[in-house]
């Protein structure tokens, strides 16, 4: 028998066993990170989650402690998008390098930008959830001012030093490329939520919105202007004051619910007939995904990212047209089959954004980054 002349198969990357991941505790990145951690841990990956931005709330701490295989490393270093953050960014980078040296992860998964340029030994994945420059462009309709020059430079360094950059939508990836230059390696992986946590209930005659109410991107102002024209209430859930206290939302015509723990917010979504997010800027929109899973008809700002995610499964309105928003909400709230049909299309679309699919995409990406010699024993 002749010996085989075929070339040996190239060595396959070893399985990823440990990931060092960062997460801020202030916004939707926390929900994204915990959803991904839950899936990774269920597949035997140990996740070392380094938190920054603010102390964990009791609800966040309970959620994290419920995950076997997840270890939380807490800090309150200021985030790169906050005012005067650079001393904290440097201290956080030193802390992350110490964690990596002690924990020896296969991959460093950063849910922020600047630390992508730090000298980690493991390959680095950076996720572009949002950024100040694209936020400013969308919300203020002008380029970000000169005071963000250092932010621009530091973010660009982190993006271009990363082994790969991920964004939740093509629209967000395009925005990053436009502001910081072409990226050597990039991929879109949509966010996801667990449908079991957002089961629909009997619908009631009200509109719900949720998010950081102080953030102009969420566009509470449009709901405030539309609400007096509506014969049904508009409830808004979320923090009214920014982490540093410099921004504060005022609710006069809408009905504030304050910050709600995730199960309580899910209950409100289950009962709401319509979920309104007339956003000026929203790179993906986790809250809209949650509301769609809960059977809400979606009324969203007409921006590229939300069009990309929802297609014909939502109604879109110009973010700066409260009258159009009010007309659309009145139309959907009238007794008709349109709202139910829209809600059904939204839920069907939402069910395609599964946590399992998200996790498998990240695991495939991790495996492609890991070199055989970096296998963790």
What this model shows, in words?
- With 377 residues, this protein is an alpha/beta fold.
- It has 13 helices and 13 strands.
- It has a 7-stranded parallel beta sheet with strand order 3-2-1-4-5-6-7, sandwiched between helices. A 6-stranded parallel beta sheet has the order 10-9-8-11-12-13, sandwiched between helices.
- The chain is globular and about 60 Å long.
- Residues 1-7 and 372-377 have low confidence and may be disordered.
Brief rundown of the structure:
The chain is an alpha/beta fold and 377 residues long. The chain is 39% helix and 16% strand. The protein has 13 helices and 13 strands.
Q: What amount of the residues lies in strands?
A: 15-25%
Question: What is the approximate shape?
Answer: globular
Computed over alpha carbons, the radius of gyration is 22 Å
Q: Could you name the ranges where pLDDT drops below 50 across 5 or more consecutive residues?
A: 1-7, 372-377
How many runs of DSSP E, i.e. beta strands?
13
Overall helicity: 25-40%
The chain-level mean pLDDT equals 91
Succession of helices and strands: EHEHEHEEHHEHEEHEEHEHEHEHHH
Give the helix tally: 13
Question: Distance between termini?
Answer: 39 Å
Task: Specify the structural class.
Answer: alpha/beta
The side-by-side strand order for the widest beta sheet comes to 3-2-1-4-5-6-7
């Amino acid at each position: 028998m002749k010996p085989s002349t075929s070339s040996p198969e190239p060595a396959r990357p070893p399985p990823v066993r440990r990931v060092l991941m960062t997460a801020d505790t202030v916004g939707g990145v926390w929900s994204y990170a915990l959803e991904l951690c839950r899936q990774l841990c269920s597949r035997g990956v140990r996740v070392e989650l380094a938190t920054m931005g603010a102390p964990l709330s009791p609800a966040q701490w309970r959620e994290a402690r419920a995950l076997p295989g997840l270890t939380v490393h807490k800090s309150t270093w200021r985030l790169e998008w906050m005012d005067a953050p650079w001393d904290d960014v440097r201290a956080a980078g030193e802390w992350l390098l110490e964690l990596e040296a002690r924990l020896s992860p296969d991959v460093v998964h950063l849910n922020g930008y600047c630390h992508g340029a730090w000298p980690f030994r493991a390959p680095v994945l950076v996720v572009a959830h949002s950024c100040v420059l694209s936020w400013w462009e969308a919300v203020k309709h002008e380029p970000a001012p000169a005071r963000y020059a250092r932010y621009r430079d530091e973010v660009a360094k982190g993006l271009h030093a990363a082994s790969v950059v991920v964004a939740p939508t093509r629209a967000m990836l395009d925005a990053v490329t436009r502001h910081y230059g072409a990226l050597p390696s990039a991929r879109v992986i949509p966010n996801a939520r667990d449908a079991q946590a957002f089961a629909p209930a009997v619908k009631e005659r009200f509109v719900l919105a949720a998010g950081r109410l102080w953030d102009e991107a969420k566009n509470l102002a449009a709901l405030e202007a539309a609400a007096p024209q509506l014969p049904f209430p508009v409830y808004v859930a979320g923090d009214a004051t920014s982490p540093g206290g410099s921004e504060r939302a005022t609710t006069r015509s809408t009905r504030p619910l304050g910050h709600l723990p995730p199960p309580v917010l899910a209950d409100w979504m289950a009962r709401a007939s319509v979920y309104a997010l007339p956003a000026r800027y929203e790179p993906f929109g986790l809250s809209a995904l949650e509301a769609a899973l809960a059977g809400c008809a979606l009324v969203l700002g007409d921006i590229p990212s939300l069009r990309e995610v929802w297609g014909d499964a939502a109604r879109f309105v110009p973010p700066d047209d409260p009258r159009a928003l009010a007309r659309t909400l009145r139309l959907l709230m009238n007794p008709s089959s349109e709202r139910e049909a829209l809600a059904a299309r939204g839920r069907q679309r939402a069910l395609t954004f599964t946590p399992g699919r998200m996790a498998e995409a990240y695991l495939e990406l991790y495996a492609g980054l890991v070199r055989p010699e970096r296998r963790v024993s």
